[in-house]
Amino acid sequence: MQYAQLGRTGATVSRLVLGTMNFGPHTSEEDSFAIMDRALDEGVTFFDTADVYGGAEHRGRTEEIVGRWLARTGRRDEVVLATKVNGQMGPGLNDRGLSALHIRRAVDDSLRRLQTDHIDLYQMHHIDRTAPWDEIWQAMDVLVAQGKISYVGSSNFAGWHIAQANEAARARHSLGLVSEQSLYNLLSRTVELEVLPSAEHYGLGVIAWSPLAGGKLGGRSEKGVRRGAADRRHDPSEISDQLDRWEDFCAQRDLAPGQAALAWLLHRPGVLGPIIGPRTMEQLDSAIAALDIGLTEEDLSALDEIFPGPGGPAPEAYAW
Question: Residues 17, 48: contact at Cβ < 8 Å?
C-alpha cells in the first residue's frame, strides 16, 4: 500500500480510498463486511461514505452497514473515516443543506448510524449557496471543539468555492478545508483548470471519484461488450475512438484497463488518490493491484494524446 498525508494535515491515509456507495443498494451486508475486512487487511485505511448513501428508499443505510462492521470488528482506530453532509435526508425544509441547524442534526445522525463518537473527515457534499460561510464555519468549529469531527473537507466544489471557504476560515483562525473530492478521470479532466491549482495553493488533498468514468475505462467484458453506460457527460458515439485507442494502449503494455486508469490518477500531481467502489471482492483485488503499475513519461504523454484534457490550468488553457 502507498500512503500520503491528508492534505496539509499531519494525518496519514492510504492512497486508495474505499468508497462504500454500493454497500446496501448493490452489495449485501455480508459481502460489504468481507470487502471492508480485506481492504483493511491490505492496508486500505481510508474509508469514505455519505449520509445519503443507501438508496432513495433507505438513505443512511450505507452508514449503518459501516457502523455495524465497526462495532463487530473493534477496528475503529485503524480506519480514517470520512462521511458527508448536505443531501436531502428527510421531508423537512431543514433536512438538507449546510445551515448550522442541519449540520448539527446531521452529524449526530451520522455518528449514531456509524456507531462511533467521532468522524475523522466531515465533507460538505456539495456547495450550499444559501448558507453564509461564517455560519458554516461556526458550526464546524463547534463540532471540532466537541470532538465530533477532526477535519473538514469539500466535495464537488469549484476552485473559487475552495478559495472562498478557506479565506473565510482563515479570517476565523480556523484550519479550513483539508481535502476536495472531485470527479476526475481520463475522460473528465476539467478540474485541472482551477480545482487542482486551488487545492494545491490551499494545501488540500484531492480525492478522485468515478476514476473509471462509470466503468467506461474498464475495458471490454469477456464477451467483448464495452463496459459503462451512457451518461450526460460522455456521448458514446463521440468517445468510441478514444476508448478504442485506450484499449489498444493497455493491450500493448499488457495492462488491465481499469487498473491502468487508477494508476494514471496515482501519477497525477496533487491527487491524494482515487476512490475505489468495489461491488465484489474481485473488484477490490483488481483495484489494489493498480498500485504496482508504473507509468513512464512516455506512457503519460501517450495518454495525454488520447485524452487531451483542457490543456492545463486556467487561464493559460484557453486564453494565452
Answer: yes
Q: Are 154 and 274 in contact (CB under 8 A)?
A: no
Query: Is 3 tagged catalytic?
Result: no
pLDDT reading at 132 higher than 60? yes
Cell output for 258: 481499469
- Categorize the per-residue pLDDT at 219 as very low, low, confident or very high, splitting at 50, 70 and 90: confident
- For residue 66, report the phi and psi dihedrals to the nearest 5 degrees: -60, -40
Q: In angstroms, rounded to a whole number, what is the distance separating the alpha carbons of residues 86 and 246?
A: 36
Domain span holding position 191: 3-319
Query: Whose CA is closest to 15, among 295, 270, 266?
Result: 266
pLDDT tens digits, one per residue of 56-111 = 788 899 999 999 999 999 999 999 999 999 998 889 999 899 999 999 999 999 99
Active-site hit among 3, 53, 151, 184:
53
- Measured between alpha carbons, how far is 209 from 231 in angstroms, rounded to an integer? 15
Radius of gyration of the chain (CA): 19
Q: How many domains does the chain have?
A: 1
Does the global pTM surpass 0.85?
A: yes
Contacts of 73 (CB under 8 A, 6+ apart): 36, 37
CATH at residue 294: 3.20.20.100
The β-bridge relationship of strands 271-276 and 12-14 is unpaired
Backbone angles phi, psi at 207, to 5 degrees: -110, 125
Amino acid at 283: Q
